[in-house]
Amino acid sequence: MGKILRDLWILSSDGITMYSRVYNPKVNEQLFGAIMSAINKFAEKVADGGISSFELSEIKFSIIKKNEILFVANADLEEKDKRINQELSKISDKFFEIYSDQLNNFAGDVSIFSDFEQHIENSLQDTVKKFKKAFW
């Protein structure tokens, strides 16, 4: 398993993007975090559990919530929800394993999470390589 996720966002309950790995320069990570947090809060009011997934064009977004933190990732439409959620669950477990002490005292400094990609690189697609391969 692995390398199925394109982009990843980890959001605090306040909508702060604690960590992101996004290849599309059009996506403002903090704005995305605020929007996703608002959508999830709305979905929690309308339906038990909040939002778990949605689709845009050729991309599928999946969301899991653990300890009041949202883990959001996108993948190709062909990927199965179960597989995406398994990867997101592994990522969330790793996040809490590495940063549990920092999360207890989190005051908004997201730089403490900047090295997270090195711990989850087996879960994330190398979009740059994939892009190059498409043209060469």
Describe the structure.
Strand 4 and strand 5 form a beta hairpin. Residues 128-136 have low confidence and may be disordered. A 5-stranded antiparallel beta sheet has the order 2-1-5-4-3. The chain is built from 4 helices and 5 strands. It is globular and about 40 Å long. By secondary structure, the chain is of the alpha+beta class. The longest helix has 24 residues, at 81-104.
Secondary-structure blueprint:
Blueprint (H helix, E strand, L loop, with lengths): L6 E5 L5 E5 L7 H18 L6 E4 L2 E8 L2 E8 L4 H24 L12 H4 L6 H9 L1
Antiparallel strand pairs: 1-2, 1-5, 3-4, 4-5
Short description:
The protein is an alpha+beta fold and 136 residues long. The chain has four helices and five strands.
